[in-house]
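Q: Predict the bound structure with zinc ion.
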Amino acid sequence: MRYPFGRQTRLSKSNAPPDGKQFPMSVKPKVGTWYIVVTCHKCKVTLFLFRDLTDGTGSLSATYLVTCPRCGHHGEYEGRHYQDMASD
Ligand SMILES: [Zn+2]
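A: Predicted complex:
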């Protein structure tokens, strides 16, 4: 009988919400799909937080604490609806 050496229980892992998804999203947005986005105060990049399941019709009253993956700026933002459109 072997004892399972080297196994560690990872109780806490920062930088990720409990469901394990990335926040903000790192995937490319799909054309025609609504998202909740914020704009980084520092480098002005658009950060996609998550899918907007209301297709732009819902009201937003939440602020989100977001760390910009590009410049590392940490700030509080009010999300807004954004639909990714084809450029041509
Ligand atoms: Zn930034």
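A: The chain is about 0% helix and 30% strand.
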